[in-house]
Amino acid sequence: MKTILWATLTANGNYAQSGPENPPKKEALADFAAHAKAAGNFIVGRRTFESMAGNGGGGGPFADLDIVVISKSAPEIPGVIVVGSPEEALNYLQQKGHQTAFISGGADIHNAFLGQGLVDEVIFNVAPVLEGKGLNLVIDKDQYRYKQVELLDCKPLGGGVVQLRYAINL
Length: 170
Ligand SMILES: NC(=O)c1ccc[n+]([C@@H]2O[C@H](COP(=O)([O-])OP(=O)(O)OC[C@H]3O[C@@H](n4cnc5c(N)ncnc54)[C@H](OP(=O)(O)O)[C@@H]3O)[C@@H](O)[C@H]2O)c1
Description:
The chain has helices at residues 26-39, 46-54, 86-95, 107-115; strands spanning 2-10, 41-45, 66-70, 81-83, 100-103, 121-127, 150-158, 161-167. The chain is of the alpha/beta class. The chain has one domain: Dihydrofolate Reductase, subunit A. NADP nicotinamide-adenine-dinucleotide phosphate (NAP) is lined by residues 7-8, 15-18, 45-48, 70-74, 84-86, 105-109, 112.
């Protein structure tokens, strides 16, 4: 099973945060929905899922998808599967026969997958916004490391959003 990490970055390279005053671009949201639909699933951290749920969440365009929420502490949540680790999320989707696991955030979850070398491909949508102090994506939280990646594609999505796609596990 292939694993794809999808994230929005800011134009100055932060891991983009969003909120009522700085909502995600509609082009990025449409791209997220298209990739999640193509995969038939998405994996999400408990905090991001709660903010999605507050905005109408797992229903609507996502009603037919396998939604996997990662949490060490959350009890069962109706309509989604709750697992305790990135590996369990991947095992669950593999057992259900998915060809692709789509990892949608947030920061802790993305960094957990990257840190454990569980990502085959990343899709970065660079949004036309600058941030101050913020979040970042790293392949190692404790020490400097680097990893060469292969650029697979680069295209504008509209609304000033540019999509970069890289293969990681070369
Ligand atoms: N740029 C983007 O594409 C993007 C996408 C989504 C969200 N975001 C932003 O990201 C931020 C939210 O991210 P976040 O880091 O606060 O939250 P998150 O990654 O959505 O969720 C964190 C929670 O996931 C669980 N978790 C994390 N790592 C785990 C592990 N290794 N094993 C088991 N459970 C684990 C824990 O849940 P429990 O506490 O329940 O144990 C933890 O509290 C917001 O600012 C949001 O706007 C950005």
